[in-house]
Amino acid sequence: MILKAKHNFLIYPFFRWYAGWLIKRKFSKANIIGSFDDKNLPVLLISNHISWWDGFWAMYLNVKILKRKFHFMMLEEQLRKFWFFNYTGGFSVNKKAKSVIETLNYTSELLSDSKNMVLIFPQGEIQSMHLQTFQFENGIHHILRGKEEKIQILLMVNLVDYFSTPKPIINIYIQDYEDLSLNPESIQNSYNVFYRRCVENQKGLKG
User: Fold this and answer.
1) For residue range 102-152, what is the model confidence (pLDDT) as tens digits?
2) How many CA atoms, within 13 angstroms, populate the side-chain half-sphere of residue 184?
3) φ and ψ at 73, to 5 degrees?
4) What CATH superfamily classification does 11-203 receive?
């Protein structure tokens, strides 16, 4: 049985506030680069997975731009260890158990409500932000089955640089995925193209 997301009336608002406060404290700048064409649909946020910070950056984006009820998939062993994330929208996945299907069905169910957004890391593990090509794990096709024109997919790329500042700068790049077919291979290819474009843009920045 999976651990379903909860939104505690105290812990969830605190996490929303804490994410923004922590980013302002630890980063010299937090830039959101790109635009989100809000179609009043549930949002699947697809992001690279580079650090412990990823969920905080996604929450920051949600508060500033998406304005949905925040949900995110998290490894069961980690969610049990850091139990408080369950009360901020975290739900469990165990890729080695039969319950993985239950998790995918639950994710699809969340994405049937326009008030919700779900953050996933289709790489399945933390990897270097210098990676050039991403290979998505299986499962996204199950989540998106029958969702044509009923869901909005947003691609997110997080890149960090220091330049001349003692604290890092986080650039959060976003782009709508606009292919209505929701083909997993097309989504993966689009993400890889978008990621490389973000890296090229990052190379041209100056501190």
Assistant:
1) 999 999 999 999 999 999 998 878 888 888 888 888 889 899 988 888 999
2) 15
3) -85, 135
4) Glycerol-3-phosphate (1)-acyltransferase (3.40.1130.10)
